[in-house]
Amino acid sequence: xxKLDFDTTTAVFQNVFNxxxxxxxxVNSSYVLFLFCAVFACLQASAQEIQDLQxxxxxxxxxRRNQNGLPIAHLSGLKTQIHGVVIDAKTxxxxxxxxxxxxxxxxxxxxxxxxxxxxxxxxxGSFTLRCTSFGYQTVEAPIxxxxxxxxxxxxxxxxxxxxxxxxxxTANRETWRISDKKLRIQPGVRVLDAKRLNSAPGILEPxxxxxxxxxxxxxxxxxxxxxxxxxxGTPDQNLILLDRAVVYQPYHLFGIAxxxxxxxxxxxxxxxxxxxxxxGNRLSxxxxxxxxxxxxxxxxxxxxxxxxxxxxxxxxxxxxxWYYLASVRRTYLDFATKAVKWVGLAPEAIPxxxxxxxxxxxxxxxxxxxxxxxxxxxxxxxxxxxxxxxFTEDPTPIRLPMYYARQNAMIWGNFNLTGFWEHRMHNxxxxxxxxxxxxxxxxxxxxxxWTTTSGASDSLIQLRDxxxxxxxxxxxxxxxxxxxxxxxxxxxxxxxxxxxxxxxxEISQVNFSYWWEFLDAAVNSELQVFFDGAxxxxxxxxxxxxxxxxxxxxxxxxxxxxxxxVRVEHFGNAKNGWTLSxxxxxxxxxxxxxxxxxxGGLYYQxxxxxxxxxxxxxxxxxxxxxxxxxxxxxxxxxxxEYFPTPxxxxxxxxxxxxxxxxxxxxxxxxxxxxxxxxxxxxxxxELSYRHTGKKFSCEVAYVLAWTxxxxxxxxYYPPYDQRHIIQILATxxxxxxxxxxxxxxxxxxxxxxxxxxxxxxYDYDPITQSYRHRINGEFSLNHMNFSGRFPVYHRLDISLVxxxxxKSWTLKPFINLINAYYKNNPLFYANLYNYNNYELxxxxxxxxxxxxxxxxxxxxxxxxFGAHFEF
Length: 871
Description:
By secondary structure, this protein is mainly β. 10% of the residues lie in helices and 53% in strands. The chain contains seven helices and 51 strands.
């Protein structure tokens, strides 16, 4: 039986920082890759013929050059579109916010988060294209426009002497002047690039979710958990996308680390609320992860070797129109602890391992079309065998060749298969079709039995069989799976220079399949599995088909930018049926340095998880609202950003979120969960300042927030409510290519549910004529009674990085120190009951019970070192 008590929890977290292998899902990945290659090869063959015809038809125009070899200027009356990509010549990463200008007509644009740029309505003729970006050398190139859609060669920017090798704070204008209108309008949008993700301190190594936790408005329930609570929303209310595909349960290590290797991430669009109608079926936030795309011209790679894991990422273009990206990560802690045990330095190896990986292929037969597909997978494996030997009952006990075996095995992971087709026309029309299948599974097996070693006597064998037949505990088994299959179509239609339509449709089917039996989960456990007070047995099957349409209209009217939108959805068997979600965002540029932004809307969600009781939870499963009303949220956001200088930025955001039809499990012993319906709200403000300098950069943020929930007409502060948060991030460039990164955070205490006791005694009951055990005081089991507060929390994390360049290689050895000055922040409180030698008697004798408040600490001082390399 699984007993999730305090001691079990403590034992798990003594090993949790040192665990991890991977057993790749039995999926024939080579077959999938072969299928991609076969389809793309056919497309390439047909596209090559079209390219040959285009080259012949354009040859006469290309040959018309003047005596200096430059194209003859303007061919009157004709217009063209110019697009291309800007990258870092050294790393191959996209260079976003690069400034591109056609000098002859003084027309300019900025590159987007993928380094792409697009000039519209350019007259035919010859021009000089200039590309500039802070920290890079200026590039100029002559171009000749003689066709409806012109793709220029990839622009490669060489770093200048002002470029810094490592920064926590990068892209100081990521939402201010970025070319993506959909993002720059809304308040509360953050764009994180690969540099920001890889430089944020992490417990094990750079991690996406740990990097997001450095942003104002984002918190976790404790040091151990990596689940994100965004502006009062719960983790299940965050929409997590990987190249437009939904990802469920994206955590390794019982929730301590994320499953996304930051080396394959190009950028992340993170909306903390008030997000656009493009996204649906979530109430709180959107984490839109985009992987690297076809920018490198040659083979490049990167990787990291650290104490706990190693990872390797490679990408390149084997042919002109092909691009590939492959990334894999694996822990080797299981092997390391086995070696430590073998030499006698540790009593036991750690039976835990994980792996994850991504394989992506793109094919661009001609400039207007791009096809691609990817396979993403992750897997966690934990197994522990425990032997308890039987002893004789003689005065001198002797261990018999008979023992009680408990075998625990837990395997969970993800598998995503995604394909897309992107088509761009000469007038700027962009169509993207995405098809994906996402799956998250959990398998748990526990077997308990008596067994004997070789040479056991017949009497022991008979005793073994008798114990297994009569007194054996039932084994625990669980098999949970959630699968989503979906197809999406998104289009961007430029109506005019200042007017753009964005529309889309999607249909998805979500299958819920949960089954377990003989679960013995303590009601008051600090560690929660599946959901609060999970039943001993469950068989839950549900299939839901969702349909959605959305439309957005972006207008640029002088200093005003408007983005009204609407989303229409139908959630399968939901009680509400069709829903209409109006949304809108407005931006007003008072001056070139100051802008005010606001957004809001109505949001619905058809699935939810149910956990509030446990301080630590993992393997949580979502349920469908099915016959219940849909969860609903109303957002209101107001923000402003001010750039007093190009290197300084002030941001202020105010927000309000109202939640209704929220669901929590009602603890009972029924075979199916029964949910309570409640409501809630979250509101607050965030003020931040960011400075980006040549040798020193910093970011300071202050958050004031309230989060409340109401169930059974009882309002309360949930455990993720935190009133005050102060955070400081800093980066200092030191001599000889050393960089020091630091993060310090100070929080007021989170709410928690205390248990209160006084004395314990026995008295005589004349009705039953027996002694009755009574507790004089209160024992609070109500999950809504979060009346206590943890003490003030603070922690310092530092990282020291050295950058070494050798030919085409870059080596970055690093040292991380988490919780540098060893602050004992509590993970949770538990009650330890100590009985004071009481004896039952024929007479009523008062007996006292002492209750100690026992503290479980969060992360200790965690030193780590390793090296990151690029080639």
